């Protein structure tokens, strides 16, 4: 039935939470199962499909050679875009990106950029003229909650999967040498999102939990356990400082666990 | 009907466009005819009842019929009353005048006092035709707001199987789980029991009927499953044997 | 059709094999899956050669925007869209003129099959997302969309199936891949309802004599009939597997 959440379901979520339980039997800090598949789109330079429970996100990366930004003449360029395509949910409408897809793209971008996951200084071909441009396109295929964590994981997996031509500068021209190289990836940002429901913080909110939450807190941790991005969103509720600090502790631990899915120590 | 060509056996799975029969037949549910050829319109199990060719759809959405009891969710408040999502192709209307019996012009903010957005309601369809969206009522006993319980959604065409012959299946599930179960003709089912485990058991049984009704021996499998989970030896022999399509 | 390139790539070699090793009348390998998305009312996925396309259906449901609703039948709204990473050169996510045209012809290829008159004022919303493109996406899109419609329980007169034929290096071929589409002499996509013997999509791009065109259509229809069998199997697959597991 429509995306308005039923009152009896809201009551059920609250009653279960009072006993530390959730609709699908999870504990408050449990994540749903992650399933990650990479390299499924051969035409993309890199790709990954992540399933987090029933949420499904596909990320493709495309590599181009182009001009750098004027203020960073020797750095490669990262562009992240997200599409909440209408087939993924009855609440997604066709059209230009709305505030939700823009927020999703910018949070995924922040995680990658601020953790310096991509060594952009190694992507310069000719200072001020030619650099590698990395397009990361996040495609949500099925929305069952927590798009941010699924998308961040998929974006990282796609970047790790990316193979691009060997571009070199020869006699003032950018040429492709034979063979493929990987993107220089130096850090592994992992996003952990909590939803606040009736004063309780639950990790990896499912769709129905998102429909009743007061607010949402996303924190992105890098490989050292440092925080490189935070986003409070998902509604007009609020957090206490203590809730945030506690969530950060749990998030740091959780992110280290989840990072192992992609990066063997 | 002897002598007239049919191209499938009873209970075979057919797909849209499959030629089912040719000749002096009658169009039944989920079939259509071109000349004297009869075809399926949906994925389902074909059957021939006297001269009628029917397909019991494996999956179909709800189309309202006057008199159906349905469970819906209030999604919008309008000047005329409540818009209710009953999972039909068109949104359904529960008129304010149905609840406020005298001719009354309710202020918009009086409606939430009765039913608010997000409330689940048991209603009856009192009108529906090609020219207007479904109209609902809550005036009869047993209808109105749902205040507790779990909701599950199954294919509407399976509701008769959940009921069973002479109510035998639903009675068995109610007895084995101690749950109160309300079946909406639109495939929405309300289950309310003393413990979440009982509710889960009832939901599992109903889900199994939804998924496996096309396979014969369903009654036995449900009985087996419930016995196993409950660990009890209670005799489920009151259930009428059935392997036939209703 | 683009003009001939400088160095004309050979599309068909001396042994009559095509760039991907196929015979002239051979389809690309096809994989079909039905019911793979939990939010949509109906969904299906196709791989045809390197094409990877997802289709999903919502409805029949209230029409949005309301003013488009029709008094005597349902609306069929169709959106064909390509992911930015689906092609060699990254494509902007904004709908291109090509996507708008394809959305229209795909809708028109499926409308004849659907009993729209059963659901006045409602809308059946169909979304086709091309995750990877390699020639023939509108045909594969129609094939998979028909399955998504059937999976949603939308009553249909028949499944619609589509396949293209064309001309490459002077020979008529079935099911063009991307390079044959770009460098060949003609491309003829066809959509078909086998039960009613009705063609519901027909386009042509390129240069053919009348005889070649007739042959191409027949070749495409042969391909359609083969794919139609695969559609039916895919639709039944879930239920057949369940039946076998239980019995």
Describe this entry's structure for a reader.
The complex is a heterotrimer of chains A (265), B (246) and C (247). With 265 residues, chain A is α+β, with helices and mostly antiparallel strands. Chain A has one domain: Ribosomal Protein S5, domain 2, CATH 3.30.230. Chain A has five helices and twelve strands. In chain A, strands 1, 2, 3, 4, 5 and 6 form a six-stranded mixed beta sheet that branches. In chain A, strands 10-9-11-12 form a four-stranded antiparallel beta sheet. In chain A, helix 2 crosses helix 3. The model of chain A has no long low-confidence stretch (mean pLDDT 94). By secondary structure, chain B is an alpha+beta fold. Chain B has three domains: 45 residues, RNA polymerase II/Efflux pump adaptor protein, barrel-sandwich hybrid domain (OB fold (Dihydrolipoamide Acetyltransferase, E2P), Beta Barrel), CATH 2.40.50.100; 78 residues, Nucleic acid-binding proteins (OB fold (Dihydrolipoamide Acetyltransferase, E2P)); 81 residues, K Homology domain, type 1 (Ribosomal Protein S8, Chain: A, domain 1). In chain B, the strands form four sheets. Chain B has a five-stranded mixed beta barrel. Chain C is of the alpha+beta class and 247 residues long. Chain C has one domain: Ribosomal Protein S5, domain 2, CATH 3.30.230. Chain C is 29% helix and 28% strand. Chain C contains four helices and ten strands. Chain C has a five-stranded mixed beta sheet with strand order 1-2-3-5-4. In chain C, strands 6, 7, 8, 9 and 10 form a five-stranded antiparallel beta sheet that branches. In chain C, helix 1 packs across helix 2 and helix 2 runs parallel beside helix 4. The N and C termini of chain C lie far apart (54 Å). The mean pLDDT of chain C is 93. Chains in contact: A-B, A-C, B-C. At the B-C interface, loops of B face strand 3 and helix 4 of C.
CATH top-level class of the largest domain in chain B: Alpha Beta
**Could you state the order of secondary-structure elements of chain C as H and E?**
EEEEHEHEEHEEEH
Number of helices of chain C: 4
CATH superfamily of the largest domain in chain B: K Homology domain, type 1
Order of helices and strands of chain B: EEEEEEEEEEHHEEEEHHEEHH
**Overall residue-averaged pLDDT value of chain B:** 86
CATH architecture title of chain C = 2-Layer Sandwich
CATH topology of chain C: Ribosomal Protein S5, domain 2
Radius of gyration of chain C: 18 Å
Q: Which structural class is indicated by helix and strand composition of chain C?
A: alpha+beta
N-end to C-end Cα span of chain B: 19 Å
